[in-house]
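Final report, Chapter 2: Outcomes

The project's central promise was a pipeline that accepts a single protein chain and returns its three-dimensional structure in a standardized token representation, suitable for archiving and comparison. That pipeline is now operational. To close this chapter, we reproduce one record exactly as it appears in the project archive, with the input sequence first and the structure output second.
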Amino acid sequence: MRARLSDIAQQAEVSEATVSRVLNDRPGVAPETRQAVLTALDVLGYERPARLRKRSAGLVGLVVPELENPIFPAFAQVIESTLAQSGFTPVLCTQTPGGVTEDEYVEMLLDRQVSGIVFVSGLHADTAASHDRYRALIGRPLPVVMINGYVPGIAAPFVSCDDRESAELAVAHLVALGHRRIGLITGPDRFVPVQRKVAGWRSAMTRLAGVAEADLDPLAELSLFGVEGGEAAAGRLLDRGVTGIVCGSDLMALGAIRAARQRGLSVPGELSVVGYDDSPLMAFTDPPLTTVRQPVAAMAVAAVRALVDEINGHPAPHSEYLFRPELVVRGSTAVVRPASPVAGKASGRQRPALPAVAVPA
């Protein structure tokens, strides 16, 4: 028990005496300190004492598309922690290909009488899916909040990263490094974030890179999300002579780097690659990935606050809240080398390659 108390105290950054007072439900502990100790219990996997469990404000569903992309566990971690701080117990529902669907998870959550649901990149982001399912939930009424994917006409708060600006930031960065033939790799165009990224890329390419609108289509490749999709799409863009690639996710960017290396091209020496998300470990890839960061913590906290306000009868305005992305420059982008084999393809002829030059990350 002593070691257990010390573990909880260390996690909550309080004294063991304070942990003991909270576990024994004694007075004299500030509400925020009490909640920090309870959150530490949840994080460390300890079961709350029975006398404290009754204080839970209820269950809240958290539906995410998958956990293979590290950005979704990052969202889940912040959302679960913030819900716990508000007294709610999160119920994580993770979809897998061929597994439980979003609608089946929702039915399960309704059976558990959840107080609300947070959807992260769910079917609300898919323009080909029916959105009546969300209108039905709101009509019950059940508070819901959507992250990344806006649907006009649904009376719920939406929290999104500005995908259009993210693509513009990536293109502007590559243009500043001398790139003009800049490709785009992202997911299927039925998704709202994809549509916005494509729009931002096209706008920046005509405005900043001076590429005619009619010449943009061959430079955009819509593929499956993930490393394999990024690799396949990058191969096609390399055949068309791009010197830089803007990707719709970090995993797609890693696929693009793999495609370049399979052709004997160096990154960033002969191809610059920009990801999106800044998911965990991207600073430790080879090379460290230049990417556009989603403000995951700020978005997750805003989503939970909006949901809790809805549950407590103080609904936030039912509109979309856009959060600004941030360009994070690392080692996968560099000044364009006009004499590189890739640049030679872009001009329609092969130029002799210059000796390799060390470019600082």
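Archive annotation: Residues 192-207 form the longest helix (16 residues).
This record, like all others produced under the grant, will remain available to the consortium after the project formally closes.
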